[in-house]
Amino acid sequence: MAPDESLPEGNPSAGLNMLNPVQASPVVPLDQLTASLAPHVASWQHRYLLGLETLTAQEITTLLDVAQILKEATEGCRRKVPLLTGKTCANLFFENSTRTRNSFSLAAKRLGADTVEFGASGSSTAKGETFADTAKTIEAMGVDWVVTRHSTPGTPHLLARELKCCVLNAGDGPHEHPTQGLLDLLTIRQHRESIKGLTVALVGDIAHSRTARSNVWGLKKLGAHVIICGPPTLVSERWKELGFEVAHHLDEILPRCDVLNLLRIQFERQNARPFPSVHEYAALYAMNAKRMQLAKEDILIMAPGPINRGVEITPEVADGPHSVILEQVNNGIAVRMAALYLLSAADDRLRAAGRSHS
Amino acid sequence: MVAALLIENGTLVDPSQNLNRPGRLLCIDGQVVSLDPADGDLPPDVQRVDATGCLVAPGLVDLGVELREPGAEEDETIASGSEAALVGGYTSILATSNTSPVIDSYGAVEYVRQKAAQASGARVHVIACLSKGGKGEQMAELGLLTEAGAVVFSDAPKPVPSDALLKRALEYCRMLDRPVFDRPSVPELAAGGVMHDGKVALVLGLKGLPTEAEDLAVARDVRLAEATMGRLHVGPVSTMGAVDMFRRVKSRGVEVTASVCPHNLILDDSVMASYESRFKVHPPLRSPAHVEMLRHAIKDKTIDAIQSGHMPRSREKMMDDLDRSPFGLSSLETSLATAATALVRTGILDWLELFDRMSTRPAQIAGLDRAGSLLAGKDADIVIVDPNAGWKVDSSQFRSTCISTPLEGAELIGKVKATIVAGQVRYRAAG
């Protein structure tokens, strides 16, 4: 018995001590949990999660439903349920990340899986190896999932072709960040009966945002009206051709919005400043107390983080009653648990089918 | 002493004399001697080539092939590239100057010519640098390079960044009677781009190569050609804007020429959704509207010629992610069939027109007086093509060192059966 299992229920440190979760007396017995997940498992067929654009509304809903079940089964992502014991999740991050990487690690650990960490610095890519070769090497060590982040769009897609294990995209350049999109959807769903019919605005650096490129498809597929808002240098008119509303003046769209998702200005991806100054950007687009007066009374304020206080959001809004920013972080673990679980189940089935064919 | 060669039972297709009829062709000592010779005029030792069911046309001429030697022999060599050219039906190719070191000296031109002479592939003509070191600053020694045997001046695939340099070079080259080639791009607008900048790039999150990066360069190029009365070829081009520009200046009688690559006539940017580096080609695969307009610009001669765009890169270089993989493709062995599939099968061009765009016209543009024609006295550089044969692209069969192609697995029509250089059958298709 692990030492932390002897911790009494209700220990005030239990909620904070996220790395050593309480394992005793699960809320739901394991067989009951597995049974409640079974119908959802049957409707998921992929051993990779690369983006939301290529998923159906049903598949997205399945991910969200499983995330909700697992969140509750782990008492808000704080307890362990040994659904994936004996499996190993490799984090292969070629770009810096703290929150997403830790969130994936925690998700794996909450489900009883082991994790192994690879970073770009110190790894073989620094010695000239291609990322695909690095990934193959890690796969050969016997991992079940590769969670990957890379500055170039499409790298997880290449890995999905090259590797036989599960592949999860944790962000490929400005392309997609599907678990971020899912956690945003889950957060909205927890506050509203349905995503269908809601008006959701994504505000800010759309051009360089993988969060935006996952959110737009997830929201559209689930029936939301999506507004993409920001300066024209960051918001292409071509979004209209893809069925989205494009806006350049936040104050004009604000009264219509049920949800506002404030995207960070990604200075690190911009070769040339797409607006004259941060000062000017904040004046035009920062969500502040004054702008809150234009908003609906029950507006949800979201931000994928890390947030730049004073640029896209001011402290009184970030920390105010409409902000669900920290709930998003917690939901991140839930959707990542769901993704790991569903991919693994699909992989098990595909392998079993492969064996029975041969 | 080269034996006499009689190509018989085929259809002679020669744009230079508007010829498209069954006939036979006699070549002696590496030259075309006559059409339809009488049996009594045939030398007793004549070698006969049967072209039943095939077209007999002047060998293809390519306006710019990267051969990568010296300096990047892992990508291609003069020998492998000139051999791949034969498989594709090319009898003359122009080798680009962007080797390492670049081709900007008498010795470098001589090196390429000697290497080509030792190989037994297509004829290799040398494009020498327009600027010293290919740096885009000062003119290279264009007069001395002409004496060394260079036929064209260009820094391509790099564009000429300086307006003043291009203007000077166009003026200077008038006395040399050699053309200048520019590959149009404004580097500042194209920086970092990996694919056509459009709706697909927006969704895929990939950095775009905007059409205006090409359009602005084309606009500059054609204006300077007009102002200097210089001999300028611009290409390959890939945009509607470029076509529009050429239409306008050509209607004013400006003698600027343009070319396009086969891959830009058959594929559009939607294939990038697979994120495979074999689709990272240059000029980039554009949206369908551009493809459609390019096809018709080839028909009405707004665009004069089709060039392979062969940019070989080794397998290991193409195995990286899309940002780090270079632009590249192996196209010498697929160009004719790609163009035939895009243009002839669709009824836009007939074969006579296609050979004009791929042989006769490119030979004129490059100033190769003895190529691109089956007239008596021309070089006996000939391609024999089965116009109806369908085949599937399989890069593992390529003679080129580079096996990256956006057309892998594509079903094409038009198969090169034999390629003849200087009256010698240098390539014959198996089977």
UniProtKB/TrEMBL annotation, chain A:
Organism of provenance: Stieleria bergensis
Q: What is its EC number?
A: 2.1.3.2
Aspartate/ornithine carbamoyltransferase carbamoyl-P binding domain: from which residue to which, for each copy? 48-190
Q: Which reaction does it catalyse?
A: carbamoyl phosphate + L-aspartate = N-carbamoyl-L-aspartate + phosphate + H(+)
PANTHER family, per the entry: ASPARTATE CARBAMOYLTRANSFERASE, ORNITHINE CARBAMOYLTRANSFERASE, MITOCHONDRIAL
Pathways per UniProt: Pyrimidine metabolism; UMP biosynthesis via de novo pathway; (S)-dihydroorotate from bicarbonate: step 2/3
Binding-site residues for L-aspartate, renumbered to this chain? 127, 210, 264
User: What gene is this protein translated from?
Assistant: pyrB
One GO CC annotation: cytosol
Q: What is the protein's known function?
A: Catalyzes the condensation of carbamoyl phosphate and aspartate to form carbamoyl aspartate and inorganic phosphate, the committed step in the de novo pyrimidine nucleotide biosynthesis pathway.
UniProt xrefs under Pfam families:
OTCace (PF00185), OTCace_N (PF02729)
- Give the top-level enzyme category: transferase
This chain belongs to the protein called Aspartate carbamoyltransferase
Instruction: Provide the alphabetized UniProt keywords.
Output: Pyrimidine biosynthesis, Transferase
**Annotated binding of carbamoyl phosphate, by residue:** 99-100, 149, 177, 180, 305-306
Nucleotide-binding recorded as keyword? no
UniProtKB/TrEMBL annotation, chain B:
Query: InterPro entries given for it?
Result: Amidohydro_3, DHOase, DHOase/Allantoinase_Hydrolase, DHOase_cat, Metal-dep_hydrolase_composite, Metal_Hydrolase
The answer on whether this UniProt entry bears the keyword Transferase reads: no
**Domain Amidohydrolase, first and last residues per copy:** 349-427
Q: Which SUPFAM superfamilies match?
A: Composite domain of metallo-dependent hydrolases (SSF51338), Metallo-dependent hydrolases (SSF51556)
Which residue ranges run through the membrane? Answer: none
Occurrences of domain Dihydroorotase catalytic (ranges) = 55-239
Superkingdom of origin: Bacteria
EC annotation?
3.5.2.3
Q: Which GO terms describe its molecular function?
A: allantoinase activity; dihydroorotase activity; metal ion binding
Q: How is this protein annotated for GO cellular component?
A: cytoplasm
- A single BP term in Gene Ontology: purine nucleobase catabolic process
Sorted alphabetically, the keyword list is: Hydrolase, Pyrimidine biosynthesis, Zinc
Q: Which PANTHER family does its entry note? A: ALLANTOINASE
Protein name as catalogued: Dihydroorotase
Say which species the protein is native to: Stieleria bergensis
> What gene does this protein come from?
pyrC_1
